[in-house]
Design goal:
The structure is a homotrimer. The first copy, chain A, is elongated. The first copy, chain A, is mostly helical.
């Protein structure tokens, strides 16, 4: 069972989790300034107060309140990160507390983080499908594998 | 106060939290392949590279780059999961560390997870309102109740 | 290194983290009823079953299935919360386990939570830019600072 969890939290597995979780969350956060960059270069904003900084002419301001395919692409990529990285972090934390051996744990973390970096590249380039789809599936597979261990180690319903 | 938390983490309450958190996160993750299923059956995609896999004819490809009410419904359901399940997981973890008695803890977890499964059914069927609204409120109520215990057990401002 | 984490979890730093994380998550959850409030006063809904509660006349129902600038503004604010508060909570938890001194920890938590409350006010009023942009940057800066400490305390790749 999940006993001795309080020792687990001092383990190398937990350190590895903290490292990879932080890296992949930083990667996700990077999508926000990237959206800002595309909004500025494509001149495509969502709020009237954002365009007021950039022009005083009413007509120019209205034109900048629009959606742009590149901005929307970065936003979909950001959303996909939220939908996938949040489950990884939650289930990964619980998984790290089940006391897996260091080798499998680090393998899980590395494959997930690698798959999400590749997913971002595949989404933003964009690479032809199914490269983005496959990288998404790899990430999902890692999280499912960790969830399986959490549930089989200490199911308490 | 929140002392002896490191013992709490070995408790049955924590095991129960790990079980229910994993189940409800898996439920949330399931919304992604469901979106994919609706995108494929409704032929409604967001990215040009996604339709290229499905047709070589330029006209057919353009027609598939569209929004579809069923796809948007699943996406709203997924978004509502993110907005509600993430707070549950964060506050539930802190709540589990305050050392609640096992009976109330498991009751909180079960009601929340049940409310979110019902919410998904109510959203996707769709059931007439206010069924979806009520299930959403039940979930919010559980999270508020746990937040109240976290803040009243160990407020440190 | 990150040793003796299991003691850290009983510390005042952890209590402070639990308090501020709960408060800022509650703030984020508040965006949902606020969206509901704007949907009802602006009569702008996303689902056919939601308008059926409010009118029986087919024409009136159709008119209420629309987007409204105020509703969309609250939703963007909610989305920005998700994108920023989730990273804060994850990295803040790991940061609290690195054993920072109480003064810097509480400073980080307070500045972040303050910046997010200000961000919401700046978004919803709306205040002229760059007030919203600056409050967003302050929050990002706090999370980066905590991430830096997590990675420099116990990097395990």
């Amino acid at each position: 069972k999940m006993a001795e969890i309080s020792q687990m939290i001092d383990s190398e597995v937990f350190l590895a989790f903290a490292t990879y979780a932080t890296i992949v969350i930083l990667k996700m956060m990077f999508m926000a300034p990237l959206t800002g960059y595309f909004r500025m270069t494509r001149k495509a904003f969502a709020n009237p107060e954002d365009v007021s900084l950039r022009s005083k002419i009413e007509d120019e301001k209205k034109k900048m309140l629009r959606t742009d395919p590149d901005v929307e692409r970065v936003r979909r990529c950001h959303q996909n990160d939220l939908e996938n990285i949040v489950p990884f972090v939650v289930i990964g934390l619980l998984y790290a507390l089940t006391g897996p051996d260091l080798y499998s744990a680090v393998l899980h973390f590395r494959v997930f983080v690698g798959s999400r970096f590749f997913h971002t590249i595949a989404y933003l380039t964009p690479l032809p499908q199914p490269s983005r789809g496959l990288s998404w599936m790899v990430g999902m597979g890692v999280t499912f594998s960790m969830a399986y261990r959490v549930l089989s180690t200490g199911l308490y319903l």
